[in-house]
Automatic annotation (TrEMBL):
It comes from the Bacteria. This is Transcriptional regulator, LysR family. PANTHER family: HTH-TYPE TRANSCRIPTIONAL REGULATOR YBHD, NITROGEN ASSIMILATION TRANSCRIPTIONAL ACTIVATOR-RELATED. InterPro entries: HTH-type_LysR_regulators, LysR_HTH_N, LysR_subst-bd, WH-like_DNA-bd_sf, WH_DNA-bd_sf. Residues 12-69 form the HTH lysR-type domain. One of its GO terms (molecular function) is DNA-binding transcription factor activity.
Length: 310
């Protein structure tokens, strides 16, 4: 006799699973057949074939009634677990394909909430109007905590720490560049260097933002002393000051995608080899399956990042 674990996968698609479950629930093959609208002989034949395959009876037939044997009890428990998992899978597939309702929460930074997500969320809602989208604007530590504690389905941020409880759903590296007004002297250059940017008033992200550490590290490696004209945790403020000609901002192209599209600012790549890139990651809890709504959102964000990266 083959082990049950080897036998079940070969018949997981078979109707015998449903037949066996209904026979036990209804107490007889005749009642199960009436409920399933099939011939009693069809159910009886499937059960006999199953018993022959296992090499032992599933039922004791006592006084014309069916009673599960110990093997039958074991098989029934496994069958019902299989049926539950199958039904759950069907429900998830239906939700993903239909996406009629649901809710997804994305924890992200203020910069991404203002640059990448507006058009992305709008497009997502156009395709899935029944899904409620919640966006939480948080610092990096807040993003990590929200995902770890289950308050957010997805976390999206730069240089998120590697946490064992996370699985990375998507990851893209972005180069930092100089952001200036169209009339700025740097605007016509194909690329520039940090030392050259330091000759103008600098509009820098505040030290609490991950990008600032990368910029400070590169300046220190080059022994360039920097005095910022403005520092802010608001990427929107930094964008607008750069667009107004107040100085040179240091951001990545994703931070200013809309402003560049409108011609409000110019992004000038930096060619400093010691300036590290920003790692943008989308994460979820490693041991918790995503809801259908969250799976759809994760797919949409991943597709958007792939499109922007090309």
């Amino acid at each position: 006799m083959r082990p049950l674990s080897q036998w079940l996968p070969s018949v997981m698609h078979a109707r015998v699973l449903r037949y066996l479950d209904e026979v036990v629930r209804r107490g007889s093959i005749r009642r199960a057949a009436e409920h399933l609208h099939v011939a009693p002989t069809a159910i009886n034949r499937q059960i006999l074939e199953l018993e022959a395959e296992l090499g032992a009876p599933l039922f004791d037939r006592i006084n014309r009634r069916l009673h599960l044997t110990p093997l039958g009890e074991m098989v029934l428990a496994h069958v019902r677990q299989t049926l539950r998992e199958h039904e759950a899978l069907q429900a998830r597939v239906a939700e993903i394909k239909g996406a009629r309702r649901g809710m997804v929460t994305v924890a992200t930074t203020s910069g991404l909430a203002g640059s990448l997500l507006p058009s992305l969320v709008h497009d997502f809602r156009q395709h899935h109007p029944g899904i409620v989208v919640r966006v939480a604007d948080l610092p990096v530590a807040g993003i990590v905590a929200a995902v770890e504690q289950g308050d957010a389905d997805l976390g999206l941020g730069y240089d998120l720490p590697e946490v064992a409880a996370f699985r990375v759903m998507a990851s893209r590296d972005w180069s930092i560049g100089a952001v200036v007004a169209p009339g700025h002297p740097l605007a016509t250059q194909p690329s520039t260097r940090l030392a050259e940017c330091a000759g103008y008033p600098l509009i820098l992200p505040a030290p609490s933002l991950s990008i600032r550490a990368l910029v400070d590290d590169a300046f220190a490696r080059q022994s360039v002393e920097v005095t910022s004209a403005v520092e802010s945790t608001s990427v929107v403020l930094i964008q607008r000051l750069a667009a107004a000609g107040a100085g040179v901002a240091l951001l990545n192209p994703l931070d200013v995608m809309d402003e560049r599209a409108r011609g409000a600012v110019v992004f000038v790549p930096l060619r400093d080899s010691d300036l590290r890139q920003q790692a943008l990651r989308m994460v979820a809890r490693a041991r918790a399956p995503l809801s259908p709504a969250a799976e759809l959102m994760a797919e949409r964000i991943g597709t958007a990042l792939d499109g922007l990266f090309r």
